[in-house]
Amino acid sequence: xxxxxxxxxxxxxxxxxxxxxxxxxxxxxxxxxxxxxxxxxxxxxxxxxxxxxxxxxxxxxxxxxxxxxxxxxxxxxxxxxxxxxxxxxxxxxxxxxxxxxxxxxxxxxxxxxxxxxxxxxxxxxxxxxxxxxxxxxxxxxxxxxxxxxxxxxxxxxxxxxxxxxxxxxxxxxxxxxxxxxxxxxxxxxxxxxxxxxxxxxxxxxxxxxxxxxxxxxxxxxxxxxxxxxxxxxxxx
Length: 236
Description:
Distance between the termini: 32 Å
Strand content: 5-15%
Order of helices and strands: HHHHEEHHHHH
Strand order of the largest sheet: 1-2
Number of domains: 1
Helix content: over 70%
Shape: elongated
Largest sheet: 2 strands, antiparallel
Number of helices: 9
Radius of gyration: 23 Å
Number of strands: 2
């Protein structure tokens, strides 16, 4: 096995571990997909959309850095700054969605009304889930969530990609630089999609009681916030 093959195998291995050990790469999409009622195909499309932005942003920064002759330390520090911004953005988005989810859970609480018609007394149960909801409002919310995730993931760096660029750059091999980027990106995206599919299918088989389904949005927001906190405070 020559040096180029070893480098590409290393890139694939690091991309896989980088994705698996970063729960934000898949937990976020699984949780939001379940809460928003997205189909598996739509959840995977949104995952791919955000994943491409995630990988390309680091690739573009790395290539520009190499062209400008930036040192590894400078590029790594810049990627670390982007990681902090992404972590805090994910934490903020998760907390806001969690608060909104709790509000929705309160609105969806079922209650009964008693009606009397002469000697006939009956009651009926309902919630306020669909009150004051317009179809265009629902469509707008469904569009806002994927775009918010996309913007956050553009800020999220692939920290491991920059050091992998250094060896082929030192060898003045643009072809090897692109091969490293291609392998790293392909493995990252494939791992993200696989993990999101596995966790989404597993979660779909978990039958929650009606009371539990009321809190799906809140749980999703909490999951996203935890991922953001893990990035911000534990550097995951």
